[in-house]
Target: DUF1697 domain-containing protein
Amino acid sequence: MTSYAALLRGIAPSNPQMTNDKLRGVFSGLGFTDVGSVVASGNIVFSAPETDVPALEDRIQQALNAELGIPGGTIIRSREELRALVDADPFPGLTHGRGTYLIATFFKATEAPTEIPDFDDPLARVVGIDRDARAVLAIVDNSTGKTPDFMAWLEKQYGKDITTRTWLTIQRILKKMG
Model:
């Protein structure tokens, strides 16, 4: 059995079809074990014998769409991939906060881009790309009244097969995975 995290795109916790209990129900119904949720924004941890991640992503997405009407994307990372990402310490010496909002944008594709075009906003900067985790790592300054539109910019550059999580959420997911 492999321990996975499903990072679901487009989850609105206020939507009654997208509650954690309903999301967990879809995963349990697919026969996965150790199903749990982390915060109310579409992070489901589970164990499965499958190792074909693209097939697993498709299977989960089809079930979410059929059972709950959720058309968004499903991006999966193994516990080992997330552990290696966190252990790499891509934000050395920084603490997640309003002025240093630490984020990772995960790509569904088999690999993340090797380069990211410049994002022309002093309130956001890319600090690196983790090729193994297929993630772009960035810092956003949310301490001013102006919020950079970094996520929309990434989506415009790379399409909708991406999803972003805060560094704190990634750490919580990893902790839940044991």
Notes: The chain is about 30% helix and 25% strand. The mean pLDDT is 90. The longest strand covers residues 2-8. The first helix runs from residue 20 to 29.
